[in-house]
Amino acid sequence: MENKDNNLSVTVYSPESRLRNPLVLMSELFKEYSQGLGLGWHLFVRNMKAMYRQTFLGYLWVLIPPVLTTLIWVFLSKSDILHVGKTSVPYPVYVLVGNLLWQAFVFGLQTPIRTIAKEKMLLTKICFPHQSLVIAGALEACFNAFIPILILMPVLLFFKIPVSVLMLYGLVSVFLLVMLGYAIGLFLTPIGLLYQDVGNGIPIVTRFWFFLTPVVYPIPSSGLAGVVAKFNPVTPFLNFSRDLMTSQAAIPSAEFVVVLIGMIVLMFISVVLYKIAMPIVIERMSS
């Protein structure tokens, strides 16, 4: 609750849970995110400049990992070390698009904890809308996810895959993939700020998760791998996005709709949890 007198804002904390007044809670969230837009944008710009300021290759570092990973998997396939079966597009394109989409999801998953953890000193020293960090992190995740997609155009033209308006819809589905990762990452952020084990564990989990997701291979029609891939929440978004990004007609599956609804619910829970937990987390970090 805020009282304004002589242009000064005073925050009064109450022991009553905000969850008992959902309308008030929603109003506060809308107000705080609206107020944090400007600062969130400035933090995003600052972070992007700082991230690539002292690098020779600059933004190319966003492109290098998926390209190198693609070359490795193509080499394994051409050497008959790996047999992935038939793909809907040439295998190099299939793997490259899959890696770009997987990287987009991982960016979304890792960015919230990393972005907010970098501002620990700021959080404990200065009073400002904490939601601006969420906004800055979301912008950073989207930027790092969409920049590598620029290399798709020449690759598609080289493999004589037509470029169509479906790719524009594909960009929307890529955004959903980023937000799926961001919702999971934001949900883990409060505890991740207190315990570094969460941030350290995410890269390990994503390495295993990569092989359980049809990034470099089609979904098997049978077997345990097929069952795991089918129930993997990333699978419907990734396959749908890959079809659209390679100009193939695609219809959202039932799994896609279920994951979309789940993502929206999880994002809402994560935003509310972040708002309620951050004062406690900041107090713990200050002690």
Question: Would you give an account of this structure?
Answer:
The chain has 287 residues and is an all-alpha fold. The chain has one domain (20-286). Helix content is 71%, strand content 3%. It has 11 helices and 2 strands. The protein has helices at 22-52, 60-78, 91-117, 120-125, 131-146, 152-158, 166-194, 196-211, 223-231, 234-245, 254-286, and strands spanning 2-5, 8-11. Strands 1-2 form a two-stranded antiparallel ribbon. Strand 1 (2-5) and strand 2 (8-11) form a beta hairpin. The chain starts with a strand and ends with a helix.
* Form type: globular
**Percent in helix:** over 70%
DSSP summary, beta strand count: 2
Straight-line distance between termini: 25 Å
Task: Report the order of strands and helices.
Answer: EEHHHHHHHHHHH
- Characterize the biggest β-sheet: 2 strands, antiparallel
Q: Report the oligomer.
A: single chain
Beta percentage is: under 5%
Lateral strand order in the biggest sheet: 1-2
Keywords:
mainly alpha, 71% helix, two-stranded antiparallel sheet, 2 strands, 287 residues, disordered N terminus, single chain
